[in-house]
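dumping this here before i forget
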Amino acid sequence: MDNTAQPEPGAAPGRPPRAPFAVRLTLALWGAAELALFFFVVYLLGFGWAVLLLLGTSFAGAMALGSFGRRSMESMRKQFAAAQAGADPRTVKPDENLPDGTAVAGAVLLLIPGFVTDLFGLALIVPGTRHLLRPLVNRFAKTSNLGKKYNARGEVVIDGEVVSETESPVRDDTGTVIEGEIEGPPRDER
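structure:
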């Protein structure tokens, strides 16, 4: 089976394939919404205040991420201390007030400059709306293709090396593995 990726028809050689149309359209609409909302805030508050507000929300996102990280580390320390003290690990419960992945995603969205992402980030951090949006975020995380590579036929490509499972290492009489390749007899003796 040929596993080499074929370029898409009409693509320039050596260039990566383009993102699907839906992704490009979504990014374009998101960028347009960010610009429109930024200009609206500039109209209401002025340019300096709009930039200061963007910087402030990014700072708030960094502070939220730091707070979530500290709380998570403190909870882990408590669990490790309880386990070292002899407590059954199954009975040691994590802190109920720990942020979940939805709140962390909201803090990351706050870090990204832009008022649209800030609004989504705040909605994911505030506990009342976080619980409403959690199923949507979970569905996106399960169905997103982040980090996956595809070939030209749309098949998932896993980087790696093929290793034969049937071959066992060659050992000498002492049990030491002998490194190298096995070569056949010279061509003239065949």
